[in-house]
């Protein structure tokens, strides 16, 4: 049952209520290794489901286009102040609907159509919005892309510097969606400074680690920092753009009225709650446990002969190259899902296969760490993964693994939901 129970929903729309409960149970019973996902706290769930969803608040605190902002102004001001304090930034905009619109706002603040942007290539670990051709950012801007070295799977900073000198981008992105190693923000800043580019650090994946001191901060290096709030930061679906005071007006103008209408005030409240939680001393412990779990899981996978891009991890994320295992990423991910292990197929750098059926798997430890799993549990996760993969066509083995996982996870409470009322 949800805490509180979904009693109104069961009464008015039992069909959706049943599906929500089924999803809660699914999240309870599976080892959730999708690197961008987490479990939010009951407090974040409550704020997200609050009456703030009824309000319209175009504008910013004290400068709104609608009346009745007595409470919403205070909510947004708290969210902004908490973001500034937690990350140590001069300015924060908490209104972007999600990570992709937050990144679009960065373009709108600094670039004109056709300007040059330098970002990490999607199949190398970058995000769509860093200038990939199918994204508006790759269509409306002149996008140049860097990658990782073939030898060690690390970002090739020599390539970044050479491309920056040759292409003179207005904007350089660092950070990505499948980067298992520490981002060297200082090195990117030096390159950006040399060519007069704006440096944007996209910390969508690692924001919780940065907040908890388990990954270096881009503050003091990047001109702009964009992030989602729902990945390692463990807040609601949403995003923020942070910057120095110098760029505050440009960022705010780009988010509203440049790109969006009314902010989602219920999300803003939930972001404020998540930032409050992330400022508590326990959260630093959480962030460090996420990394310790990823290191332990990577070690256990290496022991079992898995090939990891860059040979391991510094953060919450592990990229497995399945080429040597003889199973492509897509059927592997589907079989593992049936075995109670939820993850996503992913390209690996220099992938000879297609993005729809690539050679790799991406996993992360943010969600299982929230469930209370510890480094000592990681060999068991690796063993289940290995066993299910080896038997990926054997439904009996997959079902047996899923049953063992269900039993194991029953001892690890899930925030916001419990199988017994
Ligand atoms: C997740 C992610 C985004 C986009 O977030 P959405 O909320 O899915 O739009 C942007 N950049 C990076 C690096 C991400 O990992």
TrEMBL record:
Family: Belongs to the SHMT family.
Complex and partners: Homodimer.
GO biological process, one term: glycine biosynthetic process from serine
Keywords, ordered alphabetically: Amino-acid biosynthesis, Cytoplasm, Methyltransferase, One-carbon metabolism, Pyridoxal phosphate, Transferase
Subcellular location: Cytoplasm
Lineage of the species this protein comes from: Bacteria, Bacillati, Actinomycetota, Actinomycetes, Streptosporangiales
Pathway(s) of this molecule: Amino-acid biosynthesis; glycine biosynthesis; glycine from L-serine: step 1/1; One-carbon metabolism; tetrahydrofolate interconversion
Ranges of residues in domain Serine hydroxymethyltransferase-like: 10-384
Protein name: Serine hydroxymethyltransferase
GO cellular component: cytosol
Native species: Actinomadura craniellae
MF terms in GO: glycine hydroxymethyltransferase activity; methyltransferase activity; protein homodimerization activity; pyridoxal phosphate binding
Positions of post-translational N6-(pyridoxal phosphate)lysine modification: 231
Cofactor(s) recorded in Swiss-Prot or TrEMBL: pyridoxal 5'-phosphate
Positions that bind (6S)-5,6,7,8-tetrahydrofolate: 122, 126-128, 246, 354-356
Swiss-Prot/TrEMBL site (Plays an important role in substrate specificity) positions: 230
Segments passing through the bilayer: none
Superkingdom of this protein's organism: Bacteria
Protein's job: Catalyzes the reversible interconversion of serine and glycine with tetrahydrofolate (THF) serving as the one-carbon carrier. This reaction serves as the major source of one-carbon groups required for the biosynthesis of purines, thymidylate, methionine, and other important biomolecules. Also exhibits THF-independent aldolase activity toward beta-hydroxyamino acids, producing glycine and aldehydes, via a retro-aldol mechanism. Thus, is able to catalyze the cleavage of L-allo-threonine.
Recorded catalytic activity of this chain's protein: (6R)-5,10-methylene-5,6,7,8-tetrahydrofolate + glycine + H2O = (6S)-5,6,7,8-tetrahydrofolate + L-serine
EC number: 2.1.2.1
């Amino acid at each position: 049952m949800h805490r509180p129970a979904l009693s109104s929903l069961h009464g008015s729309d039992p069909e959706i209520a049943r599906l929500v409960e089924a999803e809660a149970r699914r999240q309870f019973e599976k080892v959730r290794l999708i690197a961008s996902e987490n479990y939010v706290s009951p407090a974040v769930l409550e704020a997200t489901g609050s009456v703030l969803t009824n309000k319209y608040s175009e504008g910013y605190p004290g400068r709104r286009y609608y009346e009745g902002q007595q409470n919403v102004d205070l909510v947004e001001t708290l969210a902004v102040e908490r973001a500034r304090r937690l990350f140590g930034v001069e300015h924060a905009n908490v209104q972007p609907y999600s990570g992709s619109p937050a990144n679009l706002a960065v373009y709108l603040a600094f670039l004109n159509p056709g300007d040059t942007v330098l970002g990490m290539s999607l199949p190398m670990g970058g995000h769509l919005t860093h200038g990939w051709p199918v994204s508006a950012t790759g269509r409306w801007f002149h996008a140049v892309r860097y990658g990782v070295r073939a030898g060690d799977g690390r970002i090739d900073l020599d390539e970044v510097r050479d491309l920056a000198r040759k292409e003179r981008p207005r904007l350089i992105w660092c950070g990505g969606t499948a980067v298992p190693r520490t981002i060297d923000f200082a090195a990117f800043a030096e390159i950006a400074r040399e060519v007069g580019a704006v440096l944007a650090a996209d910390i969508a994946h690692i924001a919780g680690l940065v907040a908890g001191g388990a990954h270096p901060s881009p503050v003091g290096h990047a001109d702009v920092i964009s992030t989602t709030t729902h990945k390692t930061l463990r807040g609601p679906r949403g995003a923020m753009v942070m910057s120095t005071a110098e760029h505050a007006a440009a960022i705010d103008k780009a988010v509203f009225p440049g790109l969006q209408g009314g902010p989602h005030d219920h999300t803003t409240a939930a972001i404020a709650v998540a930032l409050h939680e992330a400022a508590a001393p326990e959260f630093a412990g959480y962030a460090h446990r996420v990394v310790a779990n990823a290191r332990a899981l990577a070690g256990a996978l290496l022991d079992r002969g898995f090939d990891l891009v860059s040979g391991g991890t510094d953060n919450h994320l592990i990229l497995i190259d399945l080429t040597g295992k003889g199973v492509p990423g897509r059927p592997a991910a589907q079989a593992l899902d049936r075995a109670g292990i939820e993850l996503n197929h992913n390209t690996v750098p220099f992938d000879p296969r297609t993005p729809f059926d690539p050679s790799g798997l991406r996993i992360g430890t943010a969600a299982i760490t929230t469930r209370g799993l510890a480094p000592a549990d990681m060999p068991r996760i690796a063993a289940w993964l290995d066993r299910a993969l080896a038997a990926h066509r054997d439904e009996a083995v997959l079902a047996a693994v899923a049953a063992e996982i269900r039993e194991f996870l029953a001892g690890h409470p899930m925030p916001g939901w419990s199988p017994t009322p």
